[in-house]
Write a structure and sequence with these properties.
The protein is mainly α and about 110 residues long. Helices cover about 75% and strands about 0% of the residues. It starts with a helix and ends with a helix. It has helices spanning about 5-25, 30-45, 50-65, 80-110. The chain has one domain.
Length: about 110
């Protein structure tokens, strides 16, 4: 199996895990560990040098969005805001380690160029 395919499958797994854990309110330590590990896999295998800047910008947007609080939606539709919060936090948990890895690769590439 090609390494790019492994990264693709890891990304799809993250989407499924983030949404299911959000819907089921099943954010456990194991979910967190799994999301971090998959984030590292995707950051290492999927993001090329050309994609670095757009990936890091999107990562910033996702992590910032995860800091918003949607729990006030619970007053209108019970539990929906909490579900959205959990899904976004799960996505941020995946994106943050991938972003750190990609940023470190970018710094290394910049530092090693003459």
């Amino acid at each position: 199996m090609k390494m790019e395919k492994v990264g693709e499958l890891a990304f799809l797994a993250v989407v499924v895990i983030a949404v299911l854990a959000g819907l089921l309110q099943a954010s456990t330590a194991w979910v967190t560990v799994l999301l971090v590990l998959l984030g590292l896999v995707v950051g290492f295998l999927n993001v090329s040098e050309k994609e670095t800047a757009p990936f890091l910008i999107a990562s910033i947007a996702l992590v910032v969005a995860a800091t918003a609080t949607f729990s006030s939606i619970d007053n209108v539709i019970g539990g929906l805001g909490t579900i959205i919060d959990t899904i976004l936090n799960n996505v941020a948990t995946f994106v943050a380690p991938a972003a750190v890895l990609v940023a470190l690769k970018a710094v290394y590439a910049l530092a090693s160029k003459k």
